[in-house]
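Render this sequence as a predicted structure.
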Amino acid sequence: MNDLQANKDASRRLYEEVFGRGNLEAADEIMAADIVSHGPGVPPLVGTAQIKRQAQLLRGGLPDLAVALNDQIAEEDRVCSRWTGTGTHTGDLMLPAGPVPATGKQIAFDEIRIDRYLDGRIVESWFIPDRFTMWSALGLIGAPPAARS
């Protein structure tokens, strides 16, 4: 197996194992201990604790969280993935503004992530989660107006 395919498989495993199954220990196998994660609107975070915490928060609010990998592109030391998470909001979902009590609603959201690899582990990542869609589904913000023809 070439490095590009191995890196793609590791990124897939990150979504399926850590988020989809709640296997937080897999993050330590896939990512370097000093990984640098870049998310929108926050300073870079170092270490695997951030992604484990995010998986725990999502799975706490969406215990039946399922993950589907939609697209992957790999080149040199990078893997870009677009994945979708779906689940039922049956637990408190912790957001930066505080907990959102269970609504029983079906929730779906997307994320685009770029992972940089070194020696078979993710050493840096950039991610953009689709918070707008999730927050709309939870009723926290209004839905966008319908498209006009």
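Summary. The beta strands are 31-38, 45-46, 66-75, 78-88, 93-95, 98-100, 106-118, 121-129. Residues 3-20 form the longest helix (18 residues).
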